[in-house]
Amino acid sequence: MTAHHEAIRHTIAGASVRHLAETFGTPLYVYDAEMIRRRCRDLAAWDTVRFAQKACSNLAVLNLVRQEGVVVDAVSTGEIQRALAAGYTPHASRESKADGLPPVHPIVYTADIFDRDSLDAVARLGIHVNCGSSDMIEQLAERVPGANITLRVNPGFGHGHSQKTNTGGEGSKHGIWHEEIPEVLRRAEWAGLAVSGLHMHIGSGTDLAHLAEVAGALERVAIEIGRSLTMISAGGGLPVPYKPGEEHADLSGYFTLWDATRKRLEDRFSHRIRLEIEPGRYLTAEAGFLVTEVRAIKHQGSRKYVLVDAGFNTLARPVLYGSYHPMSLAPATDMRAEPEEVAVGGPLCESGDIFTQADGGFVATRALPRAAVGDFLVIEIAGAYGFVMASNYNSKPLPAEILVDGGQPRLVRARQTPDDLIRGETV
Predict the structure, then answer these.
(1) Residue 159: pLDDT above 90?
(2) Which terminal CB of the chain, N or C, has fewer other CB atoms within 10 Å?
(3) Which residue among 40, 56, 131, 349 is the active-site one?
(4) pLDDT on residue 205
(5) Helix (H, G, I), strand (E, B) or coil at 280
(6) CB 40 within 8 A of CB 65
(7) Pairing status of strand 28-32 against strand 48-52
(8) Nearest in space to 415 (alpha carbons), one of 35, 21, 78, 33
(9) pLDDT tens digits, residue range 221-250?
(10) Cβ of 405: how many Cβ atoms within 10 Å?
(11) Which neighbouring-strand residues pair with 151?
């Protein structure tokens, strides 16, 4: 399936766009529950699907993926709290698995540092840790003697749709540098910790061939670690088609490649190894829509601007990465002329508040049906790194979030109020 062209859109997951906007206000994030379920099931071949919840951490979304058998990754104390509130248990049960695989950790803390709160939470709750820096090893050993850990390794190369999403190579802070593994293993042994897992992730939005390079790099490091390994993780980065003509990755080919890697390691170590994948955007991006109202239309010289009530405080990806999002119009009337080229911007007192921009901040245009004030513009494929990166810039309240399941919309986060904006402040 490829990303579609901009068009007229009247419904999201069977719910009327206009009804959603009029009932819950705008700007508004809307999630399609069935699409999230479908994406979870796409990855059923893997032993473990671990959702990188930083992509979309609403409690209702976490609860939905939990019901699909998906476990979670947490990168902060707040994300640990979210996982617990959504019904996850802190650590694996002791009971043996019928499939002979080691138990799965429902929550894994993955980071390059422990801040003091996260170290306290991990120690108190018994949460498994994926260490991205060697200094974390002694810090954990002091609090949780004898723990098992996963190592996140930087293989020395990376890839991403933007330098800001590249998570491997010398330009990335993430992971333990691959050449330091022997020394890190000595530190872990000295500290009394066992390395039971290995994780690699080189970036997002990349192609299958590049993702496949990770498997070879991980296998080499796994051999260095040895028989203590019971889990390997392919990381995330599965591409999602945002632009017309882009396609989903070959999931079966990708699994086959990683399954072969796993089997070679099982033969070498003479025990079963759990194979994990850690998608973020793949599970939620296509399920998310940002509904925003057209509030002004104007010409700046020869260029036409459509201005809406969402800004980069609502969806930051275009201003951060020059990201492309498909757009559609939910018009107030059915009368529409041919599409026209327009720039789409928001309400912020900031030149960069443009949704149709190219990397580097250059204002671009998009062919959209002719819009009028009062129409609703739908920014699509906005379910990953959308609400979670929203801010209160210009003292704008955070939007509401809606989950649509079986055509029925449900408010899963109330819109912030003016009182919320100043709570905790004093004059």
Answers:
(1) no
(2) C
(3) 349
(4) 53
(5) coil
(6) yes
(7) unpaired
(8) 21
(9) 999 999 999 999 999 888 899 998 888 888
(10) 18
(11) 131, 198
- The bridge status of strand 11-12 relative to strand 15-16 is antiparallel
Phi, psi of 98 (to 5 degrees): -65, -30
Does residue 96 carry a pLDDT above 50? no
Rounded-to-10 torsion of CA 126, 127, 131, 134: -20
Percent residues over pLDDT 90 in the chain: 80
State the DSSP H helix or E strand holding residue 282, giving kind and residue range, or none if neither: helix 281-284
Q: Look up residue 367 and give its amino acid.
A: A
Task: Judge contact between 308 and 345, C-beta under 8 A.
Answer: yes
In this prediction, residue 157 carries a pLDDT of 75
Both structure tokens of 375: 């129409």
Residue 1, pLDDT score: 39
Structural Rg of the chain based on CA atoms: 23
Q: Average pLDDT, whole number, for the chain?
A: 92
pLDDT at 142 over 70: yes
Residue 239: per-residue pLDDT: 87
Q: How far apart are CA 395 and CA 94, in angstroms?
A: 48
DSSP sequence for 156-188: S----SSGGGB-SSTT---SEEGGGHHHHHHHH
The conformation of residue 268, written as its DSSP 8-state character, comes to H
pLDDT tens digits for range 265-275:
999 999 999 99
CB 367 within 8 A of CB 378: no
Continuous H helices in 5-115: 17-24, 33-42, 59-67, 77-85
pLDDT at residue 296 tops 80: yes
d(CA 363, CA 304): 11
* Segments of 159-287 assigned E as strands: 176-177, 194-199, 231-233, 274-277
The two tokens of residue 96 are 């043996």
Dihedral-angle region of residue 407 (phi above 0 means left; psi in -120 to 50 means alpha; beta otherwise): left
State mean pLDDT over 183-189: 96
**Structure tokens belonging to residue 17:** 């766009």
Contacts of 407 (CB under 8 A, 6+ apart): 13, 14, 15
Residue type, 135: D
**CA–CA dist 205, 367 (Å, integer):** 24
The dihedral sign for the CA sequence 337, 342, 348, 354: positive
Residue type, 230: T
Q: Is 40 among the residues known to form the active site?
A: no
Written as six digits, the tokens of 60 are 């209702």
pLDDT digits (tens, 9 = 90+) for 189-218: 999 999 999 999 766 655 667 777 888 899
Distance between CA 31 and CA 342 in Å, rounded?
A: 26
